[in-house]
Amino acid sequence: xxxxxxxxxxxxxxxxxxxxxxxxxxxxxxxxxxxxxxxxxxxxxxxxxxxxxxxxxxxxxxxxxxxxxxxxxxxxxxxxxxxxxxxxxxxxxxxxxxxxxxxxxxxxxxxxxxxxxxxxxxxxxxxxxxxxxxxxxxxxxxxxxxxxxxxxxxxxxxxxxxxxx
Length: 165
Ligand code: FES
Prior knowledge:
Layout: H1 2-24, H2 28-33, E1 36-39, E2 48-53, E3 56-62, H3 65-69, H4 73-77, E4 80-82, E5 85-91, E6 102-104, E7 109-111, E8 118-120, E9 125-127, E10 139-142, E11 145-148, H5 153-160
Antiparallel strand pairs: 1-11, 2-3, 3-5, 4-5, 6-7, 7-8, 8-9, 10-11
The structure holds FE2/S2 (inorganic) cluster (FES).
């Protein structure tokens, strides 16, 4: 009788632990809103890929050798370097009123159809009305991966120097 009671109590305890864990676990929507890890080794050069983080489009453009060679100092300062690769990574929303600009590979530019704003391949404004360059999401470099949503030293330096909001 004692053993049977112990077994039932044990099953009950496990069931309550499972129920409690379910309560502690973040909702799926909260999980999705957290961190996104990108494997930076898979991106092709010169091609814009749009990822998603916290419901926002994230532009990822691995720069070609020609792009890297012609960069100005301000463009270099916006580079996210993972291993030997240089990337433009930005929140893909126009800093004017939040439309999603389209990338035009032949011009290496982004055009925002809403009010005609333009950005270059480094994310800088080349035609107003956008008031500033694309914002860069918080990121942390971990080997060949990039964790969006975490603040690493490279992102902190960009934020402190006013490269991104
Ligand atoms: S929202 Fe892009 S130019 Fe106005």
